[in-house]
Structure formats: structure tokens, C-alpha cells
């Protein structure tokens, strides 16, 4: 009888423990990064992410000047995200245009599952396969917003293209940073201008 009570007690305690245990952490190292075309730097004032009913948080970004295309892009500043957000709000300043933009990105409900689909990527010794764990959000002149998913530069897939709205802000807040920006890129802007489409 004592053994039976002990066994029932152990089962009860085990059931309680499993019920109280937190759900396991996401198995994919999700990340979100911000990119901008070369010579067309931006300053991301605010980046807010939200998973409804779970978490809402701010991700500091700051200055972004790379990389839209080529051997280094798309890639940029960012961090890992947990949980994977449903909403992403961005407010940024374009140095070339002296303009602020805002955009609320509603992440498609099926995007995370699409990112889970195995995609090939190269290592130093072979070709492997894994989820496209990184979302890269590109911010271009004219308020163009492009979203790619990838696990390595070269296998990115464009999944969204949107138009941002002009946002609030005073360009004089960036007077000193704009001077530095123009020292580095002013000659390029004079020669090539500021394309607002074709990104």
C-alpha cells in the first residue's frame, strides 16, 4: 500500500512539474536586420517589434549604411528575435534626402513557416541545408522598403516590397551627422543623384 501511494505521489509531482515547465525555446535562431544602399545611409530612430499577447519590445539600431546588394548584401545591423514578431514598426531618417519615414510592417502569418523550409547554403567544406533564419529589411531613398529572407548572402528571396510614409521629425536634429555624411558621400550624390525608384 505504501509503495502504491509513493508511486501515485511521484506521478502526481511529475505531472505538476511538466505542467509548470516553460515551453522550450524556439529551435531556430531567428534574426532581423536592417540594410540600406551604399552611399544612402539612414539612421533608424525607432524599431519596435510585437508578438501579440506575448511580447512587445524595442530594438536599438542607429546608423545603417550597408548593404543592399552584392557580395556583402543584403545584410546589415540587427539582432536575434524571440519570439518571432507579427508587427514591426520603423521610423528612420534618410541623410541623402533629409527626410523622415515611418512604416508598420505586418508580417504575413505564413512567413515564419516559409522561412523554416530548408535552403542550401555553402560552408568552407560543403553545401548544407537549413532554414532561412534571417529577415533583412532594406530601407532605400523615396521610402522604398524591401524585405528578404535568407540564411546566407546569395540565397535571399524577396518576400515583400512596400512604400513608407513621410514621418515626423526635424532634420536639424541630424545637422552634425549630416555634415559628416556629406564629407563621405557628397561627391557621389552630386554625380549620381538620389534615385527614388528602381530599388
TrEMBL record:
Residues 1-17 form the signal peptide. InterPro entries: DUF2931. It comes from the Bacteria. The keyword Signal applies. Keywords: Signal. This is DUF2931 family protein. The lineage of its organism: Bacteria, Pseudomonadati, Pseudomonadota, Gammaproteobacteria, Pseudomonadales.
